[in-house]
């Protein structure tokens, strides 16, 4: 099974400074995220979200707020005909020393444990942060960075201007 590991905030829905998440009640989708997700699925990938949510344990949002935003996002995606395969999130604070916060590989390992049929060599990671790119490097898979800069020398790392650019690479 080929998997497209997507970051959530800043990749599919808008991201905000940590303190602003406290007042966010509804997800705002990034331009072209619907069409890109549809095309990725059409090309035979299952979409799994891998998202750092340290703002939970750092007190900016509650676990209920996280689930509310996520459920709204899932429902809107379903309404658009987009089915996410699964979601893995890390609620731990940046200084908690967990093994799941990106760029550590814990969430991808959880996905592989839950779905042993994942072919990691045919999968990729996409996100808008250096931790997403570093996760791809740490896993030895293709990585796509949206507006992350081009200071990565790894031959499997590709720089994108927008999420829409992904479809020409896969």
From TrEMBL:
GO biological process per UniProt: carbohydrate metabolic process
Top-level taxon of the source organism: Bacteria
A molecular function (GO) term: metal ion binding
Listed EC numbers: 3.1.3.-
InterPro entries hit by this protein: HAD-like_sf, HAD-SF_hydro_IIIA, HAD_sf, Heptose_bisP_phosphatase, Histidinol-phos, PNK3P
Annotated compartments: Cytoplasm
Catalytic residues as annotated in Swiss-Prot or TrEMBL: 7 (nucleophile), 9 (proton donor)
Location, primary (coarse class): cytoplasm
Binding site for Zn(2+): 90, 92, 98, 100
Family: Belongs to the gmhB family.
Protein name: D,D-heptose 1,7-bisphosphate phosphatase
Organism: Salibacterium salarium
């Amino acid at each position: 099974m080929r998997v497209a590991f997507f970051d959530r905030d800043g990749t599919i829905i808008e991201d905000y400074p940590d303190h602003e998440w406290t007042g966010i009640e509804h997800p705002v989708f990034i331009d072209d995220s619907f069409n890109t997700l549809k095309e990725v699925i059409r090309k035979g990938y299952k979409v799994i979200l891998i998202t750092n949510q340290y703002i939970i344990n750092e007190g900016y949002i509650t676990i209920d707020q996280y689930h509310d935003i996520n459920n709204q996002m899932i429902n809107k995606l379903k309404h658009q005909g987009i089915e996410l395969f699964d979601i893995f999130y890390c609620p731990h604070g940046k200084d908690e020393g967990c093994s799941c916060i990106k760029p550590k590989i814990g969430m991808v390992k959880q996905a592989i444990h839950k779905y042993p049929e994942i072919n990691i060599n045919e999968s990729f990671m996409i996100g808008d942060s250096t931790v997403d790119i570093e996760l791809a490097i740490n896993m030895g898979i293709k990585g796509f960075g949206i507006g992350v800069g081009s200071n990565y020398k790894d031959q499997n790392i590709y720089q994108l201007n927008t999420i829409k650019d992904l479809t020409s690479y896969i």
